[in-house]
C-alpha cells in the first residue's frame, strides 16, 4: 500500500526501517509542517518495503512517501 503525506512539509526522520514489521498506527515518518512536528502513521499492518523520500526532502500534500505491504 502506498503511504502518502497529508500535508506539505519536510521529512525529518524515519521511525521504522525498511524490513521492519508494523501494525496499524505505528509511526513511520516524522516530518515538519507549518513549524510543527507531524507524524505519518501506517494505515495497515505489514512490512515496510520502501521509502520514496529521504530525511531533508520536501514533499507536497499527497506525495507517496513509503510502501507497506
Automatic annotation (TrEMBL):
Q: What is the lineage of its organism?
A: Bacteria, Bacillati, Bacillota, Negativicutes, Selenomonadales
Lipoyl-binding domain segment(s) = 1-69
Q: Please give the name of this protein.
A: Biotin-requiring enzyme
Q: Which PANTHER family match?
A: OXALOACETATE DECARBOXYLASE ALPHA CHAIN
Which PROSITE patterns does this entry report, sorted A to Z? BIOTINYL_LIPOYL (PS50968)
Q: Which UniProt keywords apply?
A: Biotin
- Matching InterPro entries, A to Z? Biotin_Carboxyl_Carrier/Decarb, Biotin_lipoyl, Single_hybrid_motif
Organism the protein comes from: Propionispira arboris
Amino acid at each position: 500500500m502506498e503511504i502518502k503525506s497529508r500535508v506539505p512539509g519536510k521529512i525529518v526522520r524515519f521511525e521504522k526501517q525498511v524490513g521492519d514489521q508494523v501494525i496499524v498506527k505505528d509511526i513511520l515518518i516524522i516530518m515538519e509542517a507549518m513549524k510543527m512536528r507531524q507524524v505519518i502513521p501506517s494505515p495497515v499492518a505489514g512490512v515496510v518495503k520502501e521509502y520514496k523520500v529521504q530525511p531533508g526532502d520536501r514533499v507536497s500534500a499527497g506525495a507517496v512517501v513509503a510502501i507497506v505491504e
